[in-house]
Amino acid sequence: MDCIFCKIIAREIPANIAYEDDRLLAFHDISPQAPSHVLIIPKHHIATLNDLNSDNADLISHMVLTATKLADEQGLAKSGYRLIWNCNEQGGQDVFHIHLHLLGGRAMHWPPG
Ligand code: AMP
Ligand code: ZN
After folding, report:
1. N or C, which terminus of the chain has less Cβ within 10 Å?
2. Structural domains in the chain?
3. pTM to 2 decimals?
4. Residue 1 above 80 pLDDT?
5. What sections of the chain are H helices per DSSP?
6. Distance of CA 107 to the CA centre of its chain
């Protein structure tokens, strides 16, 4: 499968890994949009949020809790941070393997552009 994130999981492409367990991988974004920008991805390929169902509830919960743990470890818990999921073209999704963005270390704007 021609998926860049599956290749990172398989160690075919290098990444700066922040956390790994049996279900997910977290690594620093190659083009960071904030001083801290980490991507949390499932090891199992899921293309978009539209492909999720109730069977994935534990996985999604684990991704969010891993993001909050990483935010705390990076000293972002008190100052604040943002978690983002992009879905399909108008949602700004470029990589079709679901990923949770953890962004922090600067003030975030609202509403997003
Ligand atoms: P999205 O637009 O939500 O699909 O986000 C995809 C993210 O993946 C972008 O922020 C990219 O900078 C990031 N990205 C793409 N290729 C790599 C890579 N090889 N290593 C780390 N991050 C990547
Ligand atoms: Zn994939």
Report:
1. C
2. 4-104 (3.30.428.10)
3. 0.98
4. no
5. 4-9, 57-73, 88-91
6. 19
